[in-house]
Amino acid sequence: MPVRRAFAGKNCSRFFSMLTSYQNDQVHEILASRAGSRYKRVMSWCRTIRPGKDSAAAIQARLQGEVVEESYMPLGTLDFQVELSRSRR
Question: Is residue 56 one of the residues assigned to a domain?
Fold first, then answer.
């Protein structure tokens, strides 16, 4: 299995010295740290692709509250009724 290299942090590649974009989890870490002071229980809805899973991991890493449920939806899903009805609990 190939090793997945990050562009930043301790596992970054020594071949990259500049990156003009961002890693997917950076945005979600910031949002989770800001939301943690306001919300104590959250639900995470993500796509079942790698960026969605990275986002969910970043939320769990930085959130001060509790992730009560994670829901992964296939790419192309347009109906979120099941997830919306679960959020009413």
Answer: yes
